[in-house]
Specification:
Largest sheet of chain B: 6 strands, mixed
Number of strands of chain A: 10
Number of helices of chain B: 0
Strand content of chain A: over 45%
Helix content of chain A: under 10%
Structural class of chain B: mainly beta
Largest interface: A-B, 28 and 24 residues
Number of strands of chain B: 11
Oligomer: heterodimer
Distance between the termini of chain A: 37 Å
Shape of chain B: globular
Distance between the termini of chain B: 40 Å
Order of helices and strands of chain B: EEEEEEEEEEE
Chain lengths: 114, 115
């Protein structure tokens, strides 16, 4: 079946612009996670959604970052007024439910802020 | 703040060599330890999830062990092949509370296997 997909695969933007990154999880997966990997760093948790529960936003680095999940499926991560330190690979993962052992990752969006 | 450390940061081996990497993690509030392989331009792929102290898992030439009491896991690759070249990530999951389901990743070990 189809895996997790993300778009765009690459994004170059200018400092100060807003960007939207999209994630389509595996059909039927109720838990969705966003991570990012900055250069030389490990994967950093950003936010997760579980069904209709309030999302866990504890990993979002600033209030410029927000995420939505519409209809329990597609998620959009929005970064407002991008800064150069936002340059990273942004990964989305999904699982059938929170705590399900294996997380299934998408290919990521490579964001470069000039 | 949870600290997950991986060593070495990078490794170059010749085809046919066997190799191993280490992941160390907090030994308290342990729930699960994950290993992923991340090849360039692809999605991270799950290798193993281990939950019990003493767990050993194997997938072809790759195997992993877990020691939750001392807080480490080893990943072994026997007879490395060029297609094993990738970044190997370990991730620690805590049990219960508001952190349940979230993974803390190490920085990864970059393996390059030379033909």
């Amino acid at each position: 079946g189809a895996g997790v997909s993300q778009s765009p695969s690459n994004k170059v933007t200018e400092k100060g612009k807003d960007v939207e990154l999209r994630c389509d999880p595996i059909s039927g997966h109720t838990a969705l996670y966003w991570y990012r990997q900055s250069l030389g760093q490990g994967l950093e948790f950003l936010i997760y959604f579980q069904g209709n529960s309030a999302p866990d936003k504890s990993g979002l680095p600033s209030d410029r970052f927000s995420a939505e999940r519409t209809g329990g499926s597609v998620s959009t991560l929005t970064i407002q007024r991008t800064q150069q330190e936002d340059s990273a690979v942004y990964l989305c993962a999904s699982t059938p439910r929170v705590g399900e052992e294996t997380q299934y990752f998408g290919p990521g969006t490579r964001l470069l802020v000039l | 703040i949870l600290n997950v450390e991986q060593s070495p940061q990078s490794l170059h081996v010749q085809e046919g060599d066997s190799t191993n990497f280490t992941c160390s993690f907090p030994s308290s509030n342990f729930y699960a330890l994950h290993w992923y392989r991340w090849e360039t331009a692809k999605s991270p792929e799950a290798l193993f999830v281990m939950t019990l102290n003493g767990d050993e898992k194997k997938k072809g030439r790759i195997s992993a062990t877990l020691n939750t009491k001392e807080g480490y896991s080893y990943l072994y690759i026997k007879g490395s092949q060029p297609e094993d070249s990738a970044t190997y990530l370990c991730a620690f999951g805590v049990g219960g509370g508001t952190s349940y389901g979230k993974l803390t990743f190490g920085q990864g070990t970059i393996l390059t296997v030379h033909p």
